[in-house]
Amino acid sequence: MRMKLRLTALLLLTFIVSLCNSLSASKQSTALSQDYNSGAIGLAERILYRVYAVTDPDLLPQKYKSDSERPGKSGTGAILEVWQNLDLLDVTEREAIRDALSRPTLTDTYDSPAGYYKIHFNTSGENAVSLDDLDPANGVPDFVERVAVYADSAYKCLHLHLGYPVPPVDDSAGGDNRYDIYLMDIPYYGYTAPEIEGPNPWNDYVTYMVMDNDYDGFPPNDDPEGDAQGAARVTAVHEYFHATQFGLNYMTAIWYMEVSSAWIEEICFPLVNDNYAYLEDFFDYPQLPLDSVQDFRHYGAFVFNRFLDSNYDTVLVRNVWEDLRYEDDIYIVLDSVLVDYGSSLSGAYAEFALWNWMTGFRDDGNHYEDGADYPLVDLTGEVNFYPTGEVGPPPGYKPWGLGANYLKFNPAGGLLGDLVVRFDGVDSLEFGAGYVVSEPGGVYHFDQIELNSAQAGSLIVHDFDLKNYVMLNPAVKSWQADSASYNFSASFLPFPEYASEISGDGPAEIYSSGSRRVYFWVKNVGQENSLYRMSATADSGWQFSFPDSVYPLFVRDSVYVAVDVTAAGGLVSGSEWDITLNAVPLEADTILNSGSLRMNIVVHNGDANNDGNVDVSDAVYIINFAFVAGFPEPVPEYDAGDANCDGIVDVSDAVFIINYAFVPGSPEPPCWVY
After folding, report:
1. Which partner from 6, 75, 510, 591 sits 20 to 30 angstroms from 130, CA to CA?
2. Are the CB atoms for 623 and 657 separated by under 8 Å?
3. DSSP 3-state of 665
4. Of the candidates 363, 395, 377, 373, the residue with the CA atom closest to the CA atom of residue 284
5. Segment 505-518, tens digit of pLDDT
6. Is residue 390 classed as helix, strand or coil in its secondary structure?
């Protein structure tokens, strides 16, 4: 006998808190909470009134009727919480709730064109649909036909395109085994109600859907056919995805059900953008936990799934829902699926938090597809003066588990230098400390500060005065945490009055005793313009000269400095030597900055006597080596005598050198490096 999970009275407090959070801040929720807390109504009455608030507000006492002009997005969450907690009530109370949640009885039906749905509706009374029957004029109200077409599209998107399993059928409870949709006058876009246990060995339930009967006066959207059509279109897929979810695990956390159903609107009907109306509820409170159901925040949190499908793929979300059949904890499932993608819930959340900075005018085209249309995330704090000392987030802004802050650091007017930011989170939690460096021209750089086991780390941003800003993104990567503490500090390190930064443009190859020109980049990283005198140093035997040894350098300008170098003699190939360029400002000749260039010694084929030149003296040296017993081999190594690069030092190399020296057009040694 299969087992279905049931909540016990131990979850009563959780239920009450969750139920409070699922309501918007209205007269209805306030009055219900006050009367329940004072004992004026019992738990059963409170639950029943919550059901009425979704299914039939006219049955509510006047004091509990909502004063909100904003229609609810989905009544599914409230109904599901009630259903999940029926065991907290006695038998009589449970039956009263079940009666209130029973299927509506409507007079007319219409089967959708693809045959997936049966649409139930009235043509008279308070639940009547518009009788307009123009396109086509066939005796079926146009609104009913539109809903049927939208529902068929939702079915095809979810099951035929995305591959989600079909929810369990109802054994003809609505007249046949088509999925039932009821059109009624309700204060929500729609809701999905569980009815009976499904046939599978997991927590599945048979459901039916209720949608509004006209969507008159609902919030505007971007549907090209009109607001009412757009609202009906997205509700068809939003609520039907709830039905699909109930077929997989009706015990799944309500916040993720709504995240997924609001997200599927974007996937199946991307032109409508009705869910954009809830984005501010999410972006205005980034410090709240990802699973928060405060007001409408969990609908705006559809961007979490949008991040998952954009950064990974849409299959990831389906994998999550399929795995939820065997595990109720959404965080465990999300983490497990993300591990399969080479990430984790903690790591993905830290990246998600950074993505949420890149919206509105900051959208760079590399994050959310429609990020330019999303609102800006709420700024936790802004720093304009340095140093800050150690400070924490403002009151009320401490991030919760899988919550984040956004701290913006602006350059300190006119000063040239670097920014140093230090972060230190509470040791008992896991933090992320992402950051964004914004530069002129719409250039952004993203990364994470590496934190140690004490959740501390630091960031240095060079040339801070040239940046638009730096944003630090403290994110609590721990799944569960209440108002996490952290500290940060920021200091500005101004450049010295005179300073230069030197780097060699190399490495470069050079022959033993050979000469060549090499180059260095010299940049003025001080606060003042100056003339800089150049000099070079290396080990004994190296020589240097400069075409120009004094260069004017304006602040942050760079010059390309040429140095003619002659290597010491007797250096064998494969050895490495560093030459150092020194730059001294004429106005402060005690300040010296240096940079080095690595020189690699290579064989100078043909320079048998290692004087730095290939000429007749080398031919004579080779002839002596070939014919005079005991004459030393070429220096500093045997291969220096191999002028024709055939691997052997003999008289043919002497002939090659004589031709090279005296016969016009004769080739140079073919294996010279430069």
Report:
1. 75
2. no
3. coil
4. 377
5. 988 999 999 999 99
6. coil
